[in-house]
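Data deposition worksheet. Section B asks for the primary sequence of the deposited chain exactly as it was used as input, without tags or linkers unless they were present during the calculation. Section C holds the resulting structure in token form. Section D is free text for depositor observations; keep each observation to a single sentence. Incomplete worksheets are returned to the depositor.
Section A, Depositor: J.P.
Section B:
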Amino acid sequence: MKNSSINTQNIFLIIWGIVVVLFDQISKYWAGTLKTPAQFLFLSFEKFYNPGISFGQFSDGAPFIRVVFLSVFFGVILLLSSIFIFYFLNKKDLFSLRLSLVTFVAGVTGNGLDRILKGKVVDFIILSPFDQIVFNVADIFLLLGIIPTIFLFFKLGHHIWFDNEQRSFKVIDSDFQLRFSKKLVMLTFFSNFLMAIFSYTIISTIAEGQEYVDQIREYLILGFVSLVVLFSVISFLFGIIISHRHVGPFVAFRRFLNDFQNGKETNLRLRELDEHKVLEELSKTIIENFVPKK
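Section C:
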């Protein structure tokens, strides 16, 4: 029942994120059709193209550097947030925190899609008292997501960091866990390497003969090295935690068998997010069939 409830929550969160992104994109399409500024109460609607992030930040700088940097920036946030929401926080009691995080990530994704596909973001909402600030629907969801997220991280901290149901960053089977983590790191490296070769080939072909081609190549190499280091560290740490959830149940089951063999009264109870739940059923079967009934 717990897994069913969590799966239902996950489906809702994914649908909610898609709805937010679609609403943002539709609103930007509508803004693109505006011929003259529109007014509604204290809001004004006028189309502006923002080459930066939210609320016009990072709008200065060379176009190529700006597009590449911000596209990677949005991609990293999306990846890390997805791992955090659907793996580390995959608990029924943390639904409110996960919802606020998904709202934030959906806002990031809305602007990130514009950045990747168009190289710029459409801003069109102006508050009459603050006409120097122009934003869009994605920016609104960013704020609606990040503010409760900060609050809930403090309020639900004991469920996140100090819950006995969570597996920690711990090595209990160094051989398996390190081999597993190394494989993730290698996969990360070769994935980034293939992407770098593809990007380098495309950019070299398009920019051949241009005066800025050397600068582009320098930024590409720097970006590749930075991403490889960042994602390799993340992959290694993530691998340790994932492998802990796989190895932990077997270590607990071995402890159960040792206690059972020594005649101790024992029960096997795995943690909420552990894999191999079948071991709990197996331990119950062993107790029912081999413990003399009083």
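Section D:
The longest strand covers residues 43-50.
Residues 1-163 form one domain.
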